[in-house]
Design a protein that fits this description.
25 helices, alpha/beta, 6-stranded parallel β-sheet, dopa decarboxylase, N-terminal domain
Amino acid sequence: MEADREAQEAPAVDLRRDGAAALEWAASYLERVRDFPVLAQVEPGDVRARLPESPPEHGEPFANVLRDLDEVLLPGVTHWQSPRFFAYFANTASDAGILAELLVATLNNVGFLWRTSPALHELEEVAMSWLGQLLGLPREWHGHIEDTASTSTIAALAAAREARPGARVVLCSEQAHSSVDKAARLLDLELRKVPTDDEFRLRPELLSLDDACAVVATVGTTSSAAVDPVPAIAEACASAGVWLHVDAAYAGSAWTCEEFGWSAAGVERADSLVVNPHKWLFTPMDCSAFWCSRPDELRNAFSLVPEYLRVAEEVVSLSEYGPALGRRFRALKLWLPPRRLGRGERSAAEQGQRDGRGLPLAHPARRPLRAAARCRQRAHDRGRRAVGLGGAPALRGGVGSTEPLEAVIFDLWDTLALWPSESFARVKRQMARHIPNFERVWDVTYNDRQTGPIEAYFRALGLDDDALEHCLRLRTDFTRAALVPREGALETLDELRTRGYKRGVISVCSSDVEEAWDKTPFAAHVDDVVLSCAVGLRKPQPEIYQLACERLEVRPGECLFVGDGANDELAGAERVGMKAVCILPPGRDEPLWPEARGWEPTIRSLEDVLTLV
């Protein structure tokens, strides 16, 4: 009775439990997004047809929501986070930005006045100042956040109309974004398109400004990323007293890199400017940075404070500078990425994160998000419930499945061979003598080391010949010394062969392992080995498991995978249909990796594998 009552009183949503499942789903999705078809594979109406017409009478478990997300919604998603998404613009929501969105929703502030959330207003001012410094903008400019560049453009043209009463014409390039057309329509302004030159740039000599209130110059047009000649346009606008709005929504973020600073020429003379951090700067969608060098004109256009919004403080609220009254705590997602990355790590993060095909990732490493996620949800029978992706059903049979086993595939490090952490720490200290900012560089370039030659990796870091030779020797000597079989490893492999099982290895490792492999004790005791450095794939990508099965000439459902849980390898194995077992390092009562904690079954020794099969 007591248990029944507690069950009835339990909340429909448990933020800690269900939130952990949501974060785990998000982390897993981002690790596999490159493997999905980029464009949604549905026809109009397909998604709606698979959803109920009416809401449910009673609440459902959160696991049901995740199931529908996988099976119903995900096939209808176009994957903007994919590194293979090249349409429109790059949407680079990072771990920090994703976690910031969670905090925004948690606080749920409605910042229509300073008093309703002082922190919201003042953090927005600070975050915009930080971004302005990164972009090289004048410190004295007013800045605030709008949802999109379309709204920022409406704000700019409304202020321009207010600043020059009677002038009702807006001019822009024939290559300008359609948001300028829409803003002019909403504000009852006449829009005139100015022809472009052979490089699709507005021709300033063709500007006719007699009855104009504004000119919109573009830095990074939608069709060709053309950059209008802002200095010449600014000179013409200044002479005629016409508002200059610079639409750098796409390319303005590039000003954080010195090599693209040329495209900012003349921007300091603009009356207003828009840059979208949600396009390049690790910030989720719905964050448009808007600056104005004439904020009083913005207030003239938008300030409206009814009696019920009047307060005692003599402070101007951000709602007085734009169309919207209420505002989200967007500043958190503009503030958190530079807090986590630092101003000097942007290029390192961009250069270091590559996928299996060598393409730059649209997002940096997933470790912060992964660390924030708790253990995955378990089914009521305490068997692990793996969430499938892309509409593929999750494997639920586990080791108890009746399909006969034909092969056992092992992870290498901390499974067949124990990783010597203390020895590697000494090696890292020696390599750090040659590599500036070693810990940061080593962390953000993890993928590069695992999916290509280690010599090329070190060369890409700019090492001279002597330093290169020293680092290669350190790694080679360390790897050869570390590839020592764990207790019971060779005996277990031999017994599996005696029983008729095929034996394979999948390892995420650098090429020094490949070079040393044939001389290790393992080489004669396994039938095939798949190394990430050799195939350009890594766990938990499904292709690396499928490749191992193909080489062993077995189906995934006929394989048992044994690993310590690094790289989310256990879930990756289950997703392709394998059975997966977690093995503990000696002396530990739980896995080292958070995503493997609570995994069932978990074993303590390699000999236990023989019991399972």
